[in-house]
Write a structure and sequence with these properties.
Low-confidence stretches: none
CATH topology of the largest domain: Ubiquitin Conjugating Enzyme
Helix content: 40-55%
Order of helices and strands: HHEEEEEEHHHHHH
CATH class of the largest domain: Alpha Beta
Largest sheet: 4 strands, antiparallel
Shape: globular
Radius of gyration: 20 Å
Number of helices: 8
Strand order of the largest sheet: 1-2-3-4
């Protein structure tokens, strides 16, 4: 696969200009293997990284929050979203689920399939900052100031948080984890689920006689690649 910045240099330059305007203390650069995303994680292959100090306006205030971060763009950006790494002493740098940080400082900004609802494929880095990174940073700042999570802007950790998102997509209560997982499995299919599949609602009916329109709508709205990622997490925590 030809990386996005090689395939479309004009788009790369546009992204660089827009990032510089929106977040002047960050830069967008082509980095070689070995570049540190934070003190624990280094690039394994050449990639474009947005890095530096990002400023976030504090709600109802003229002040700003400042955090060092790195956004690693995938080769097929902007079809797929960046990955954020913490690179600031004020943020957790190692696995800390309570602070929505995993592995070696990777920020958990949302459920995998939820990210595209805030940042549809084809969006910009600036939109990624505004819609996903900024709310996450404000959440972290509240936690630091009050030594507890804020009463907004976060789901439960792991499986339960993922299930909550898919129950929201269903739009009405699902009976339990088994039914929610069955719903996810339908959304992860390569082709639109057919009417002969059992409906995940627990009614015992086939999809054609139950919730086929809803399942087909959500299958079209969510990226199956992200649903599969969420499903793998769910399987690891339940099997």
């Amino acid at each position: 696969m030809t990386a996005w910045y090689k395939k479309n240099p004009e788009f790369f330059e546009k992204e660089r200009r827009e990032l510089a305007k929106a977040s002047p203390l960050m830069g967008l650069s082509i980095m070689r293997p070995g570049f540190p995303l934070n003190r624990y994680t280094k690039l394994e292959t050449e990639a474009v990284v947005a890095h530096g100090t990002h400023q976030v306006a504090i709600p109802n205030s003229h002040s700003h929050l400042e955090y060092k971060i790195a956004l690693l763009t995938p080769p097929n950006f902007p079809d797929r979203p960046p990955v954020m790494f913490c690179d600031d002493p004020k943020l957790p740098w190692r696995h800390n689920p309570d602070r929505h940080v995993f592995g070696q400082g990777q920020a958990c900004l949302a459920v995998n399939a939820e990210i595209q609802l805030h940042w549809p494929p084809g969006s910009t880095l600036v939109k990624f900052l505004e819609r996903l990174v900024d709310p996450w940073i404000v959440w972290q700042a509240y936690y630091d100031a009050h030594d507890e999570p804020p009463p907004w802007g976060a789901r439960d950790h792991g499986r339960e948080g993922i299930f909550d998102f898919y129950r929201e997509q269903w739009g009405q209560p699902l009976p339990g984890a088994f039914q929610t997982k069955a719903f996810m499995e339908l959304l992860a299919m390569k082709k639109t689920p057919k009417g002969h599949h059992p409906c995940p609602c627990g009614s015992g009916k086939k999809l054609r006689d139950c919730h086929l329109p809803l399942v087909a709508e959500k299958w079209s709205a969510l990226d199956r690649r992200d649903v599969k990622k969420d499903l793998e997490i769910v399987k690891v925590t339940t099997e």
